[in-house]
Amino acid sequence: MVSHGLHFSTMLTKPKSSLYYFHLLFSLKFSISSLHTATKGSIVLSSAKTRCRNSKFIVHCNTQITQHGRNGNIKEAESIFNRMPFKTTVSWTAMLTAYAENRNISKAREVFAKMPERTISSYNAMITAYNKNGCMVDEAYELFCNMSERDAVSYATMITGYVSKGRFDKALEIYESTPGEWREPVCSNVLINGYLKVGRLDMAIGIFEGMVRRDVVSLSLMVDGYCKSGRIMEARKLFDEMVERNVVTWTTMINGYLKMGYLIDGFGLFSMMRKEKGVLVNSTTLTIIFEACGHFDRYREGIQMHGLVLKSGFEFCVFLGNSIITMYCRFGCIGAANLVFDMMTRKDLVSWNSLIMGYVQENETEKAYELFEKMPRKDVVSWTTMIMGFSGEGQTDKAIELFTMMPEKDDVAWTVVISGFVSNEMYEEAFSWFTDMLQKSVKPNSLTLSSLLSASANSAILSNGQQIHAQAIKMCLELDLSIQNSLVSMYSKCGNVVDANQVFISIAEPNVVSFNTMIVGFAQNGFGEEALNLFGKMQSEGQEPNPITFLAVLSACTHVGLIEVGWEVFKSMKSLYNIEPGPDHYSCMVDLLGRAGLFDKAVDLIHSMPFDPHSGVWGALLGASMTHLRVDLAKLAAQQLIKLEPDSATPYVVLSNLYTILGKKKEGDKVRMDKKSKRIQKSPGCSWLIVKDKVHLFLSGDQSHKDSEEIRVTLRTIMKEMEEQACDLFNPDLTLVLDVFCGFSNVNKMPSPSLATVAFLKDASLNKKYDGYKNSGLALSFP
DNA sequence: GACTAAAATT
């Protein structure tokens, strides 16, 4: 009989069982009458018929029904089920489950009602169907109670149902009612899993310890539970004690290490796992490895692993492909990410979103948008990523357009639009959109408030910041660390160090960002001593400083002129803290030494740098040379700056001004001519001052303006009074303003809306209402 | 060896 089959297809290399013909009947849609191969055909047919009772046919169909159900092909599953000449209880149960998987509870119920006989498994399947439906746990429970006989799966399923609804009381009640003689690990496992998912490690431990028999799942669950609570040592102890460990156990432990940033342990365990007999790395393990490589910038390991995957012919599942795309995007290798994307036979939303995100991060918004338009289906993430892309490029109009078109807007989408305004310095829009968001009853999250606090800080409008602070308290977010850090930053940028410090000391567990922000706050407001004290305190509290801490401390030293201390701190970076000073640290030191007139030391330091000095270093030297009228060094610094940033006007302007001040008009003109011949444009210097909650903007403009001298005089008076009031004259903002308005700097031209400004400033200076510096902010920025 | 239940991932 089997040999006849060979006539059907020459592709058959070895005899197939009758299953083959049965499969053919369905998959090639051969109807019985269309089998016209006469004698041969009828033999096949009759044999198929007689073999229908053969369990192999039925098993095959049952498997097909299950698989189609899982893949969402409910029509296929139905068609096979309906055409089955003989059905077993398993077939009926498989069909029931297929309907349940596709959320068709009424059909599932129909099948359950119609089936000729029911086993415990059929009941179990129906309970699962109810559980999956969302709000039918009670129906499930009714069925469960009506069962004359139950097995471990019945109990496990019922517990899962209640656990997924968060009804742990009922779950526990059923768990405790499990017959003691066969309380299988799976019953405890589902409960442990439930407790761990809601973060109740204590309860999970309780159940775990009460277990008489534990299996590899119970232990793997507990390993995961300990890892996720940060108790990695206990997790490892449990892991080491395990007699049996499978892929999941290994993967869980590796994931635990990698998520906490313990790369050596994680990668080490991974190579141990690869050597372990009987355990095979799977796509989940690899997904975790790729994620860690991307997250911790392990380029070499990432590439190596990708090579290994390609070499071993490992099948790309969607998760794995997506994690590789994300990794390459993090490395900035968008081409490689694209290649992986193209290679993937199956792609999902995450694949598209990850690649779009990659292009957005590379500022290739157009490319991102092409993909966005091409993708078959879009979700909130796709829209939000695109909005972020356009905002990041300053195309706020396009961002808003997309936001308007977005079908459902969540808090994240609103936040992205708002923070887009903030990063584009459109503070008013940010606040007005925030009002809209509140009116639409969308609940802001901590990120929304953080970016609005940063808006308040950058626009130095304290009252807005205070309102956001109030909002945070109202929403019970005032204990959120990122909010607290933003508050510290906001208050200190608005010149309100007292409130900044108030917030800072209220932080229960300040992190390195909190300390850095407060140190910068002290430094920028002239409290150098306090900044240094806090630096000491942070260490006595066991908080490791990072490179940014040192920038803050060094700038504090610069502000209060603590040259020796600054020098010591700088030297200690490497020797005490094993932190290699970066370009910005060197700039800070050059600034510190240069301002003090210690040019030999400054130049020596530049020569001792282990890398080529960047523009910041030369800029600092140029600034200091200007202050101390050191033409020789200014020339050197300006030359270097021109080399590094040929389009920047600053070195030309500073140098020519210096020559002018020294009365060397000829040289000054020469520099100006040089600049002109290179067609370099200086972007206008800009300064602003807030008094009485109004922002007054000064742009450098026409030199010939008749009032410029008057404004300078007025400002000089203000500055003098500030000096008398012992305002911090080392504050860079303030010195810059002094420079600008007193004509000692690159901006020697005054703004046009002058008369009103002058009148206002006169009034302000006379009535001493310019406490804007302390309370509202006085700063200078070069756009 | 099919159906029902339990663990790790972008």
From TrEMBL:
Pfam families for this protein: E_motif (PF20431), PPR (PF01535), PPR_1 (PF12854), PPR_2 (PF13041)
Keyword field contains Cell wall biogenesis/degradation: no
Cited PROSITE patterns: PPR
Residues in PPR repeats: 88-118, 119-154, 184-214, 215-249, 348-382, 410-444, 511-545
Keywords: Repeat
Claim: Repeat is one of the keywords in the record: yes
Protein name: Pentatricopeptide repeat-containing protein
